[in-house]
């Protein structure tokens, strides 16, 4: 903490020195046409006449006003430009002109300028739903990858996972020179595409890449198109990295990119044992988002259980050792104007070691309710992901497409644990293994018969196979009251499951354009899902399997879910208000068969929804959405035979479960001013869930049995977020806050238990650059977590000041410092923990040489563990995760 305070004082001193050394003055004015009509989005550049570089720039607001901050007394060349008008240039000397603002009238250009010429001269170009940013205007010169470039653009935010948000809205697709890379996913490109190849960034609002639907676009999706510099096209570019360090540390990484008008090729590969993850297990299960899901648009869904089954996701901040290898290849080809084919293949091999000590407080447990659990885990996985896409568009009125997605995995999770509870120590060993795979196919066709009528047909089919196997060994007899085991120590049981899923969907849409501000959408669709599940539990004695002879431990279940639906949506516009009400009628048929008994029910639901969006201006809007949803559960919650989930947890399904019904409301506000470079956005979300699937939990000492039910008490969740940032001439400030409060109900025994979780995180920071050599990001994050059950309450707090710096010095040297300090407190148990993380990297590159040399030290303060907390329906936990110890690495980078 003393180090942080010292760095802060020095930084603020430097900032004060800079502010006094260079006095800045406002330079304001108004841009209009020759008739006096204000021109919004005109660009104003102030060129440094000595360095021949952009010193400042501005964009006019709806009243045509602009504001620049310039160095007093210095001469500048002012360039003013607006698409369709003749540019204006003039020389000025910067003084405070607030008493006599500049007023300039632009004349229309009789010759239409080409888009390329206009965009090149303008830092920001706004044309309808497309905003184009000239990257060099916003960047500082220290950016390494695309994610660093995007973080410098006004209103953009890139998190540590590579997810991109603009004005608070998540980017749905990323393209490079108009071509998708890796299915449009943002992570691989933001972390691997070199920053020095980026020319412009296009933000595409209301994005829709289906040509026949352009006239009836209901999408609020946002996409990015990264435009490359001209000298990076039709050539191979990228970089190669090789590194090594003490204790057999190693790092290898390669990026290679090729873009031409007809073909793009991307290759990303890497292997290391220093925790730099190119691709994680969570990426594998998330990547590309799958296909289908048409019924979700109509307010209904079947929640299929995930494949990953709780495998821990290892990152640098929670793992002791991480080894990973990744190969990723993407291609995109346009053989003709009407035909496009693309696809990718990603392979990942991971070997991670995790360790933790957790203090677990069980809710509504009589007597001593605290357990100390020590865990050591090794996770190994091999995963593959393959996608193929083809699209045929013979003319703007017709588009036909086909997609195929294959996912395969082979994973093993080996855990050694020791549980201390009530004076008893239980030595636990567990192995969880699985080899799931799935294949999805999707066919789509879109046809615009004329300018008033549009048809679309989409269909998908998926087959999914899951085979989780759990091998449990304990020194204490497990589940003695429910499972009869022969005397053997350690006690060893084997839980096997096989789940097969066939899922097919189809939807037909008809769009009728009534006039310029109204159109109607009629749809009919069907979802048919068929699942089977078998499971068995046996005891292992001397590697021999013994049937436990208990039918309550066996499952053989068949499940069918069918949804027929029809819907109508009206899209209408009243001035600046876009109003979209919908009404969907669903008819469900659900059946499950097990133990010679068939449970069947039919149901009809009418689901209304409405969305509204009011645009005060092109960059200022307020939106509201109300989306009720019927949520059905899958076979794993319906199978009544007991399943062993962990050393102290059993799960038995409920064959008579019905659907839950959710009321979901959201409101989002966004206001970004190009005039003042002030960005404010935020949102509120509220969900009230009736007949929610909750659990009856029966405790027997430390052990518990969970049985799902449709609980007759409503569960609620409310969350909100706010983000604000303001850019000044030499620095920027930001503030963000996230608040979430949830109320969930369950039964512990026959007692209704209300769980309340209240989580808050607030972050404020300042970023500045000194003398174009030193960049500093400094801030503090404050987290409050409070968890309450019927007889237990706990509060956790964490204070995290942080600082990131990079400085360029001498000729070709750069030093990066990343430091954070954490003060973690568990209020109920009076536990306090301080820990610091310090990473340092020194690089050298001579001029424009393709060679770069790096020395990096990670976790230099050799912190051994960090604190976290979590909350579930039956326990509150605080963890200490063991992390990678200090290491050094020497690397060489070569730019292709």
UniProtKB/TrEMBL annotation:
Highest taxon listed in the record's lineage: Bacteria
Keyword field contains Transmembrane: no
SUPFAM superfamilies, A to Z: Carboxypeptidase regulatory domain-like, Porins
Pfam families from the UniProt entry: CarbopepD_reg_2, OMP_b-brl_3
Coiled-coil ranges from the UniProt annotation: none
Ranges where the Outer membrane protein beta-barrel domain occurs: 451-760
Signal peptide positions on this chain: 1-21
Keyword annotations from UniProtKB, A to Z: Signal
Protein name: Outer membrane protein beta-barrel domain-containing protein
Source organism of the structure: Roseivirga misakiensis
Lineage: Bacteria, Pseudomonadati, Bacteroidota, Cytophagia, Cytophagales
